[in-house]
Amino acid sequence: MQPVLIEKAPASIMIKLSANPFQLPKEIRNHHDHFWNEQINNNPTLRNGEVFTITESKQTPEKLEITVARTDYKHYLYTMQHPACDHPCKVIYSCASILTKDNYMAFGRMSQTTSTPGRLQFAGGGLEERDVRDSIFEMEENMKRELQEEMGVLVHSPSTRSFLPKFIKRKGSHDFWAVIYELTMDYTANELHDHFLHHNQSIRESGKQPEFDQLLLVPLEKEAVQSFIQKEQASMVDYLTPILKKYTEGN
Fold first, then answer.
1. 66/225 Cα distance (integer angstroms)
2. CB 180, CB 237: distance < 8 Å
């Protein structure tokens, strides 16, 4: 695995959609189909939706420009389970660290009905067709929707202090890219936790399953973060440890 690279987000971030879908060789598609059939036998809730893979990137300190092409979730999931595969799906997604007013960072534990059960990660998600305007993805709108769906948090509300792109993540286990936002809130850690529990209960009452089955809150103090990293046994998305450490640098 390549080391995770976390950089300050540039002032301009643009993600463009190619007019041409990503083409896979027939033999590779057959491997994906066989793997997919095995996965849905184990987890019938999986759905093969549209996914977007990076085909080109240009980056300067002031601007990040990414071009993506259409592929599918089979391609993505195969890449996740086969890191050294040929023709990998290389995605870019958005996610958000949530900071409380008493200096905790909040993130979730993925529920057992997801493709990565038990994994710790920020709220967020991949690119979606509905966020495309004139071949450009509106990343901020995507992130706002994910926060509302997964955490019950409204970005434009009295409880929000600030919301902005903070970091760009590259490299790591699959060389996926991420635009990492920072959402600071007027909630305390306890208030945010209560809000999350209420949100999940509402989801279950509607007959659905929440994306996260637990909200974790870690105080942004160096010793507390080090202790959490050392003791936590669950799998973590590759950016989580570097981001936690970055927030406690100099503390």
1. 33
2. no
Number of domains in the chain: 1
- For residues 143 and 9, the answer to whether their CB atoms sit within 8 Å is no
Q: How many CB atoms lie within 10 A of CB 144?
A: 20
Helix-helix angle 240-247:222-231, to 10 degrees: 160
Vertex 161: Cα angle to 155 and 163 (nearest 5)? 50
Q: Are strands 92-99 and 123-126 parallel, antiparallel or unpaired?
A: antiparallel
CATH assignment of the domain containing 47: 3.90.79.10
**15, exposed or middle or buried, with CB in 10 Å at 0-12, 13-18, 19+?**
buried
DSSP 8-state symbol, 129: G
- Listed in order, strand segments (DSSP E) in the chain are 4-8, 12-17, 50-59, 63-72, 92-99, 104-110, 120-121, 123-126, 132-133, 136-137, 160-171, 177-185, 212-219
Q: How far apart are CA 144 and CA 44, in angstroms?
A: 28
For 47-79, write each residue's pLDDT tens digit. Answer: 899 999 999 999 888 999 999 999 999 999 999
Residue 66's alpha-carbon distances to 32, 58, 131, 164, in angstroms, are 25, 6, 15, 19
Q: What residue numbers bound the domain in which 113 lies?
A: 4-247
Helix ranges (DSSP H) in 54-178: 73-81, 139-151
Query: What is the reported pTM?
Result: 0.89
